[in-house]
Amino acid sequence: MEAIIELKGADIYQRENLILKDVSLQVEKGEFLYIIGKVGSGKSSLLKTFYVELPLIEGEGEVVGYKLQAIKRKHIPLLRRKLGIVFQDFQLLIDRSVYKNLEFVLKATGWKQERAIKDRIREVLEIVDMPHSGSKMPHQLSGGEQQRIVIARALLNNPEIILADEPTGNLDPETSESLLNVLKAINKEGKTVVIATHDYPLIRKFPARKVACEDGGVREVGEEEEIIDFESLLDDELS
Ligand SMILES: Nc1ncnc2c1ncn2[C@@H]1O[C@H](COP(=O)(O)OP(=O)(O)OP(=O)(O)O)[C@@H](O)[C@H]1O
């Protein structure tokens, strides 16, 4: 097995605040991994370390072959090109069609041939099961459909890893489930998928390896371990 993400003894800071201490984590190529944990526990910070939005100051790390400690500035875009990043709030450009959104990214990343651009856009829209959406404007799509387009956009440059930060955060359970089916299918085709989420019902439905951010660290969650969503228990209590 080959690690595609590796941290060893990493300390993760937001400014001067230590968020996660002594993190050691290995993600193998082709794995499907959940990062779980309460609000503010450091899930996003961990993902940001992978795409060097947060610098790795203490410890060692390697992502898609790039060493994170002391990574050269000019290498950061090269590393990021191997990652497809998906956030909770669908950030499509609202002034242009789905096709134009995708074309914009391809052109910005050096694609020039119209034919190749057209073919690639058709391919990624098929992968996310939205083959006829090219001419639609973002506001003509539901939240779940927009999120599929965001995933299509993340796939454009054939990244090795999909990193998703609360991708279902704004979606209802049924739409979330269909989005997870898309991510699972992408994983089945060989891409590594890492999802930060506290959508525990969804995790139960689509079981996979889990690591938890808690008490300022990251730990492996046992397969049989019951994950208890204290936040929603509290919500139930209050409602
Ligand atoms: N830009 C920042 N500057 C300083 N502190 C920050 C910054 N961003 C996040 N933090 C702090 O870092 C801690 C971890 O935040 P992070 O966003 O990684 O958590 P999270 O588990 O992803 O939470 P959520 O589920 O709300 O997204 C929090 O205490 C937060 O207040």
TrEMBL record:
Which superkingdom, per the lineage?
Bacteria
Q: Which SUPFAM superfamilies match?
A: P-loop containing nucleoside triphosphate hydrolases
For this UniProt entry, which segments traverse the membrane?
A: none
Q: Which Gene3D superfamilies match?
A: P-loop containing nucleotide triphosphate hydrolases
Q: Cellular component per GO? A: plasma membrane
Among PROSITE patterns, the record links this protein to: ABC_TRANSPORTER_1, ABC_TRANSPORTER_2
GO terms of biological process kind: cell division
Q: What is this protein called?
A: Cell division transport system ATP-binding protein
Species, as recorded = Prolixibacter denitrificans
Ordered alphabetically, the record's keywords are: ATP-binding, Cell cycle, Cell division, Nucleotide-binding
The molecular function terms in GO held by this entry are:
ATP binding; ATP hydrolysis activity; transmembrane transporter activity
